[in-house]
Amino acid sequence: MSPKTFQDLVEEVHEKGICQECGGCVSFCSSVDYNVIGFIEGKSHPVYIDKDKCLECGICYYICPQTHILDEDLNQTYKFTDFNTMLLGHFESINSCQSTDDDFLKHGTDGGVVNSIINHLLEKKVIDGAIVSKTKTPFSRKAKFAENKVDLIAASGIVLDMSSQLDEIQKFSTYTHTIAKLNRYKFKKLAIVGTPCQIYTIRCMQSLGVIPSENIELCLGLFCYENFIFDKLKMEKFRRDFNVRVEDIEKINVREDLMFKVKDNGGHKTTHIPFDQLNDYMRPACNACNDFTNVYADISFGGLGSNEGFTTAIPRTEKGKKILMNAINEGVITCLELNLDEKKETKELLMRYSQLKLERKENYMKHLT
Ligand SMILES: Cc1cc2nc3c(=O)[nH]c(=O)nc-3n(C[C@H](O)[C@H](O)[C@H](O)COP(=O)(O)OP(=O)(O)OC[C@H]3O[C@@H](n4cnc5c(N)ncnc54)[C@H](O)[C@@H]3O)c2cc1C
Ligand code: SF4
Ligand code: SF4
Ligand code: SF4
Q1: What share of the chain is helix, strand, coil (3-state, %, to 5)?
Q2: What is the pTM (predicted TM-score) of this model?
Q3: What confidence tens digit (pLDDT) does each residue in 68-103 have?
Q4: Exposed end of the chain (fewer CB within 10 Å): N or C?
Q5: Which residue's CA lies nearest to atom 9 of ligand 1?
Q6: Residue 318's pLDDT band (boundaries 50, 70, 90)?
Q7: Which of ligand 4's atoms lies nearest the C-alpha of 20?
């Protein structure tokens, strides 16, 4: 039987409308230097650019988060032993953390923990750089190679003018070209920040031992319930639906719902919009995704389960555990000591959202077939 190729992704993934736009196939294509496949304007999935140069190696098919070919291998590597670990992933502990650095805390999405940890690893020379994400235009983000604190702050900055408020919304857009950047940094030790679909692809590449995935020292995963498309028309609709004026938005967070901190009569107020009211804004392919807490990351991070200004951090691998512990011991971040009831409550909350996401996928896939 001949190996599957990108043509099979077209038929089994793109034509069903379930491409997650993680960028993995484009970045790790064996013929990457020849631009065999790529994203083009107006398409929500990659396309063949030069089909004749396709080596028909099947890599793109193997690593796609929608084919699930390597799930079993990954589940073994990442110690998924029963339904609960399948749902929430293997984890060492659940922590509620905050950066001790005022700059990271001020610019951070939640507790500024992700960038603080990266900064710590850069200072200790554990990594040479990190692939984070920076706003490119009001409607797109692109990967940024961060080598120091200034780069990290630049990648998380919030500037209050019209375009950057839209930029804030774009913070939640997945297609960041993040993974595509990897090939440029073949000889460096990297950390990478990514959504579950992106981290999955990287783990597949590591499992296959394909260059340059061995350079990735650390996968820092963000929780992700869903992602949004906010173009100009959607922003107008959003204003009508929720009475939130774009120019008033100061900050956006995603946790148990979508939260907008907006200017209000010289002060501020926070508006919460439940996910189930956001269907018109959600990227359709996110319906076909079942990983909420980024189960294959070294450490997963999200706002859910923590108070405002704190980040929930879940170390999953030995490496992740050590890095988080070092960051705590060296005063880079602080961690709230949760009592047993609080730990149970947080775990149940994360389970609930993971279960909801799984059920959403199951329903969505039923309607596709
Ligand atoms: C698309 C998306 C959806 C999310 N959904 C949820 C959710 O449903 N529930 C929840 O609890 N948390 C969610 N999060 C995670 C949450 O918003 C915070 O990112 C997380 O809590 C870490 O906060 P922090 O302050 O510690 O990170 P920070 O220290 O602020 O660092 C955040 C890092 O993430 C990078 N980054 C930002 N956007 C992207 C992107 N699109 N792709 C890759 N890297 C990026 C930044 O460059 C920065 O390095 C989501 C994040 C994203 C990007
Ligand atoms: S060369 Fe391999 S990885 Fe690239 S498109 Fe063809 S089958 Fe996919
Ligand atoms: S989900 Fe990712 S790997 Fe699969 S086709 Fe879409 S961009 Fe490529
Ligand atoms: S829900 Fe998040 S992880 Fe899943 S496909 Fe959408 S952006 Fe990717």
Answers
A1: 45, 20, 40
A2: 0.92
A3: 999 999 988 998 876 666 789 999 899 999 999 999
A4: N
A5: 255
A6: very high
A7: 5
User: Does residue 290 sit in the same domain as residue 323?
Assistant: yes
Q: Is residue 1 part of a domain?
A: yes
Task: Give 178's pLDDT tier (boundaries 50, 70, 90).
Answer: low
Q: Is residue 244 part of a domain?
A: no
State pLDDT tens for residues 4-20.
999 999 999 999 999 98
Same domain for 184 and 47?
no
Residue 228 neighbours by CB under 8 Å, 6+ apart: 169, 172, 173, 258, 278, 281, 282, 283
Query: What's the chain's Rg over C-alpha atoms?
Result: 20
Do 48 and 145 share a structural domain?
Answer: no
Closest CA to 197 of 133, 288, 110, 117: 288
- 80 CA distance to ligand 4 middle (Å): 20
Please check whether residue 254 lies inside any domain of the structure. no
359 alpha carbon – ligand 3 mean position (Å): 22
**Crossing angle (nearest 10°) for helices 113-123 and 318-329:** 90
Say yes or no to pLDDT of 307 above 70.
yes
Q: Which residue type sits at 236?
A: E
